[in-house]
Write a structure and sequence with these properties.
Two copies of one chain form a homodimer.
Chain A: H1 32-35, H2 42-59, E1 63-68, E2 72-74, E3 81-85, H3 90-101, E4 105-111, E5 133-136, E6 139-142, H4 144-162, E7 166-171, H5 174-188, E8 195-199, E9 206-207, E10 225-232, H6 237-244, E11 249-256, H7 262-273, E12 277-282, E13 289-294, E14 297-302, H8 305-309, H9 315-332
Parallel strand pairs in A: 1-4, 1-8, 4-7, 8-11, 11-12
Antiparallel strand pairs in A: 2-3, 5-6, 9-10, 12-13, 13-14
Helix pairs in contact in A: 2-5, 3-9
């Protein structure tokens, strides 16, 4: 779980069990954190975040919280089935690298086993980890075909590690995500305007309150039907803007599949939550174009055909533009 | 997608879009394959399977189809949300290795990005691929701390690759799984009793028929509620036993969280589908004990404290016992 641990572990660090939930009142953004239980490991993570922020209060670096990957909604207490949001974590992991290269320290709050900065170049391939290796004189070596690129990536990774500029924090369920986001936010308030929130995670809109979770795996009924009756996840962006980190700059994402509603949904979010920037994108074209939406402006960012052909990543264009706006935010406040 | 491809690819080989679905009649095991469209890549996979079976008709090896990981049920046509079954693919990936070590050829039908035989020892760690590497004199090398074990694993992997004994076939949705299972089964019938089915995948019981899939991402309503009304996935085990591969031996798995119903559910499946063996396991204890259930017997297999302490994998006990039963099946038929 900690980026600075040297020995890779083979088991998940996240406890998949769900704590008991006492009541059955309707859940909103005011009672969510009293009505739901924090993940058992939260205080351990808070300590890591505090240490990380201390390092960068001293280093003088700006700190960005990048959220990445999809949250799950368990449908059973002993979880066999869950609802998930499609997200490999490409946007978040790629963006984190460009923030690091632009001098930011990064807290990477990510869905466990989704793409990570740097390792993303080698994980989640359709082939196998071991295809990068060969045996040479009774020793495992990196296949020379891959070793040049791997050296470049390894150096960047070690640079982030050695300068303590990257902290990896995992989540799986939407409940774990919300508790951890709140902890991060209130701790990052210490950095005032130098804190940036880059909320690229795909957070569930709907969930099943703990009070209504069945204990065991749902059994097929004779009728052959299953009806899952979900409630809306409270929206916490206004709490983040108003209470948790009011001096930080906040960037949220809006992913749609219907291009007719993208801009209006983005503007709706800005009006409702009063934060600084929404980056809109369509599922179908999200790797080639995004739109920066503010209350009075829409600014499309697109890879040119030439850039797309060279496999340039659109995050290389997005991050400098976000940083420009963060510059202004710091200067204005 | 193909095990024999040398160059790792960074993008998914699976097309995530869902073909149009014409009608809205109720779906059962008789009309499923006419009412739903096959994945566009299916014929390519069938060619790979045919080639693989040809190799092992000649090599004389038995062939086991191991299914592994969970299937998804998309809730939207342009998929943002889906229901998933919790499964990392540990049982399947580990079992595949022990089948290979016991002389079987393995078709590994797995959820894309779930654990794979051999690479599982290094993927899905809570740390990073790059933690296994160091820079030494301007070259990337394997960290000596990990190189001995990695050499052992790499040799086994290369052995499977060079003897063409392992074919990796991915799926994501339950529809992709069902079409591919049918193709595998009918092709494996050529091997008669020497084919074994080891169905360890966590297949969804419920799905949303394509005719009722909304085109775009489901929007939050003012009521704040979302009701997902799912139908039962038709059961295909009887088709497999009766029609697709009637001479093969078939082993299915039953995962429950409630130990009071495990045995009765396993026996119920045997009576209903008339196959040879159900391996029962409980979510909570699945890595330490399983139960082999036949119509007249229950045989618990457990790791001893000593074995558990040495981190022995229970699949090392399971696979030889399954192979014993496959021996008898071949001799009897």
């Amino acid at each position: 779980m900690n980026y600075h641990t040297s020995k890779p572990e083979t088991e998940s660090a996240i406890d998949r069990s769900i704590p008991d939930f006492p009541g059955a009142e309707p859940i909103d953004e005011k009672n969510y954190f009293s009505a739901n239980k924090p993940p058992p490991y939260l205080s351990e993570i808070e300590d890591q975040i505090k240490d990380f922020i201390e390092v960068h209060v001293k280093s003088g670096k700006r700190v960005v919280l990048v959220t990445s990957g999809g949250t799950t909604v368990p449908l059973e207490n002993n979880t066999v089935r869950f609802i998930d949001n499609f997200s490999a974590g490409t946007r978040g992991a790629t963006s984190a690298e460009y923030f690091l290269e632009n001098g930011y320290a990064v807290i990477f709050l990510h869905r466990e086993f989704s793409l990570l900065p740097y390792s993303r170049h080698y994980s989640h391939t359709t082939n196998c980890f071991l295809d990068y290796m060969i045996e040479e004189n009774g020793k495992v070596e990196i296949n020379p075909q891959f070793s040049d690129k791997m050296l470049t990536v390894l150096r960047k990774y070690n640079n982030a590690k050695n300068s303590k500029s990257l902290l990896l924090i995992p989540f799986t369920t939407v409940n774990q995500y919300l508790f951890t986001l709140r902890s991060c936010s209130t701790l990052l308030e210490k950095l005032s305007t130098k804190a940036l929130f880059y909320l690229a995670a795909a957070v569930s809109d709907f969930f099943l309150p703990m009070s209504r979770l069945p204990q065991h795996k749902i059994q097929s009924q004779a009728t052959g039907k299953l009806v899952v009756d979900l409630e809306q996840v409270p929206k916490f962006l206004s709490r983040l803007v108003d209470d948790w980190a009011p001096r930080a700059m906040i960037v949220s994402f809006k992913l749609e599949t219907d291009d007719n509603i993208l801009i209006s949904k983005a503007k709706g979010a800005l009006e409702k939550y009063q934060h600084q920037l929404v980056i809109g994108n369509l599922l179908q074209t999200r790797k080639r174009e995004v739109v920066f939406v503010t209350l009075d402006n829409e600014d499309w960012i697109r890879l040119s055909d030439d850039q797309a052909e060279k496999a340039m990543e659109i995050e290389e264009l997005i991050i400098p533009k976000v940083i420009e706006q963060h510059d202004s935010w710091i200067n204005r406040n």
